[in-house]
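User: Here's a chain of 279 residues. Predict its fold as tokens.
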Amino acid sequence: MGRSVDGYTEEARIRVGIGGWTFEPWCGTFYPDDLMQKRKLEYASRALTSIEVNGTFYGSQKPEIFAKWRDETPDDFVFSLKAPRYATNRRVLAEAGETIERFFAGSVLQLGDKLGPINWQFAPTKKFDADDFGAFLSLLPGKVDGRVVRHAVEVRHESFADPAFVQLCRKHKVAIVLAGDSSYPQIADVTAPFVYARIMGTSESQKLGYSKGALDLWADRAMGFASGGTPEGLSYASDSPAAGKAASRDVFVYVISGGKVRNPLAAQALIERLKDSGF
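Assistant: Prediction complete.
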């Protein structure tokens, strides 16, 4: 489905993935038992359509590492990156400019077209301060070296379930991470030309992490967002859950936390359900 949003791909896509690719219990449940460590990204990137990288939250990576990830993955694969904690775990967010600049001046652009959204994750104790948060959003670059950069904010304090926060994110075209099946407040309002969801309700007792009904539901929700809608059954913080009318949107869904050993299987099951969706 075509779109005309500056700097975004012409075709809307639903991408589904997991957090990282090196969790040891995935050997034998997702990876073949005899698969070498150095082949795991190659394998995961062909079974899934995206991966959220958590390591960038804790420290920087060398340019050659990003280049290696780029070269080991298929052409249409995308990485989402967790932004450095030094930018978000601070009392005054407006003072994060130097950290943000350093992050983008580093090596992330080595990913090229495989650079997906940046997830700026905040501590559950961080409360909404409109002025400070607005100043922070103003620091996020729309483009770096001519390349469009997409941003999502993962807020985890109930004070953010506020129409003022939604409007602020909409002003800056920054997505609010949709927390699915978790104890964190759910803010499903669409504030950017894409949707970023992290679903956290898998269980080891379920063969595919989620029940068939739950997998069907999340697949339907992903298709609803991708089609430009705002699915029912989710929690919205404002009376206008969509940022204007959209013919279609990119959607990123990551199966995170929960019964982690089952997360790759849940992601694969979602991909299977979405195969004939047109996204």
